[in-house]
Amino acid sequence: MTDKIQKLSQSIGDAGHSAFDTRSAWELHTYLVKPFMTHLKQKQILIIPQGVLVGLPFEALIDAQTGRFLIEDVAVSYAPSATFAVNALEREVLPVKAISALYDPMIENETKEISKMGALSDLEVNAVASAALSKDDIFNLIERNANMHILLHGQYSTEDPLQSTIEITAMPVRRSITAAELLSADWGKTRLAVFSSCEGARVQTRISNEFSGISWAVLAGGADNLVLSRWRVRAESHADWMETFYRSLASKNRSPALAAADAMRMMIQKGPSNPFFWAGPQVFGK
Predict the structure, then answer these.
(1) How far apart are CA 75 and CA 116, in angstroms?
(2) Is residue 126 very low, low, confident or very high in pLDDT (cuts 50, 70, 90)?
(3) How far apart are CA 138 and CA 132, in angstroms?
(4) What is the pTM of this model?
(5) Distance between CA 48 and CA 80 in Å, rounded?
(6) Theoretical Cys-Cys bridge with 61: which of 6, 29, 40, 191, CB 3.0 to 4.6 Å?
(7) Which of 162, 174, 133, 163 is nearest to 150 (CA)?
(8) What burial class does residue 245 get, using C-beta atoms within 10 Å of its C-beta: 0-12 exposed, 13-18 middle, 19+ buried?
């Protein structure tokens, strides 16, 4: 199974240049998903991955009988442990009508992500450039807002995942916040945190099978729902994904997992179908 997961991940991680490994996607769906589908009463699953399954984009697994990606039939979200999963399932889904956005103007100029969000009629966006803020300012922003969107560069650390960073500024002086520092923030009022930052969802598994990385830091800090990117995404397709995601949250009152499913299905229909273009964002929570 490890070999199949590695082949699948490699075929996605090549920035969409390689052919997607459909055989591994079929076989993994058959082994991991198919036995449970007859017991599924709702079109939504919450997965607590362990061991080699950590990092596997279940959304991209394919039903060999129908040829459809799992996400086309079922909304998928994740939790780092059973405790987080139970807490997520017990929480009420609240509509997202307003969001505070922290962004890098250089990224925004390339992606137009914040402007696309701001153009949605049902969503109020309050945006502030990261360069204008100190770390304390950023923590204060996080701690007083229920919904946060963070459009900053991300960098995963293989040596110590808690030293993975989001970059506040690159010029003239590089300033960044580590996952360990994010853990020190109070995320208790946060219903939704979206990190539109490359590699934010990458984690390392400890001996205890617990995650270590940005996702763990934010969830352990108290956030209800979290969205991060598994790999280095393409700016244009990622901005389109986010636009659909927020439209579903705001106008349809969807949960983060259902809104993410809407975004992924839209991207699959739009093409190309390689999961690299649409399966990057990972939802933790409901």
Answers:
(1) 24
(2) very high
(3) 10
(4) 0.91
(5) 6
(6) 29
(7) 133
(8) buried
- Residue 175's alpha-carbon distances to 134, 210, 221, in angstroms, are 9, 29, 22
Average pLDDT in the 42-67 region? 92
Dihedral sign computed on CA atoms, order 26, 29, 35, 41? negative
Angle at 207 between CA 202 and CA 210, to 5 degrees: 50
Tell which residue, 228, 279, 246, has the closest CA to residue 122. 246
143, with CB counted inside 10 A (0-12, 13-18, 19+), is middle
- Give me the residues paired with residue 165 across strands: 155, 178
- The CA distance from 222 to 83, in Å, is 12
Residue 244 has pLDDT above 50, yes or no: yes
Nearest to 230 by CA among 180, 162, 279, 161: 279
User: Is the model's pLDDT at 164 over the cut of 90?
Assistant: no
Confidence of residue 230 (pLDDT cuts 50, 70, 90): confident
Tell me the pLDDT tens digit for each residue of 166-184: 899 877 778 899 999 999 8
Q: What are phi and psi of 15, to 5 degrees?
A: 55, 30
State how beta strands 175-178 and 124-129 pair: unpaired
Beta strands 192-195 and 124-129, pairing class: unpaired
Flag whether pLDDT at 203 surpasses 50. Answer: no
pLDDT(54) > 70: yes
Q: If one looks up domain 1-286 in CATH, what number appears? A: 3.40.50.360
Helix (H) or strand (E) holding 106: helix 105-111
- CA triple 160-222-159, angle to 5 deg: 5
Look at residues 106, 149, 124, 148 and name the one whose alpha carbon lies nearest to residue 235: 106
